[in-house]
Amino acid sequence: MNQRSKTMAENRAKLIFAARKAFAEKGFAASSMDDFTANAGLTRGALYHNFGDKRGLLAAVVEQIDSEMAVHAHEAGADAGGGWPGLLAEGAAYIKLALDPEVQRIVLLDGPAVLGDPSQWPSQSSCLQSTKLTVEMLIALGTVKQIDAEAAARLLSGAALNAALWVAASANPKDVLPKAIEAFYALATGLLNTPPCSRV
Q: According to the UniProt record, which residues make up the DNA-binding region (predicted)?
């Protein structure tokens, strides 16, 4: 990497860091471009060059945080031992992040309001592909029914995302969280080849 490219990468990182802090504290609407540039020690020109506008900067911040959320969920799945328990743990971990103030405000409230449908975000696409691979493996093992892996992955990812959005937007997120996770488990269990026997 030459010096110019290195400087551009550093400036981009500084602006994302400053914006992430401002968006978390003030929200998108109340944050100004002067907040970002002053805190980053850069000019508006650097912001325009790297992101185009404030919306472009929000998109970069959302992608960074959403990618971190995906990593956190993946680690939760690995801790649960992978496979079917891991898939459920990943979904639950993602939903639980709706209680994180930064995630709640930037990704789940301001993000959809400014950037549109979260299922179309690049970071969500990456998460979807990971879930699809897991579903394909579970189908091959006979754990999950012989259904279209992409369809199942999209429904699982969509259920976790919409549960997180519901938790974040609710008046009492902590009260809603367990309900959301319980419903997510119930929906996901329908994919199992041999669902657990219903309790009488």
A: 32-51
* DSSP secondary structure letters along 47-71: HHHHHSSHHHHHHHHHHHHHHHHHH
Q: What angle do CA 61, 63, 66 make, to 5 degrees?
A: 105
Q: What angle do CA 186, 192, 196 make, to 5 degrees?
A: 65
User: Residue type at 26?
Assistant: K
Residue 161 contacts residue 119 (beta carbons within 8 Å): yes
Give the 3-state secondary structure of residue 192: strand
- Sign of the dihedral through C-alpha 126, 115, 94, 24: positive
Q: What is the pLDDT of residues 123-167, one digit of tens each?
A: 888 888 889 999 999 999 999 999 999 999 999 999 999 999 999
Region 109-116: what's the mean pLDDT?
Answer: 95
How far apart (Å, rounded) are the C-alpha atoms in residues 161 and 112?
Answer: 11
How many CB atoms are located within 10 Å of the residue 158 CB?
A: 14
In the predicted structure, residue 65 carries a pLDDT above the cut 60: yes
Residue 164 pairs in a beta bridge with none
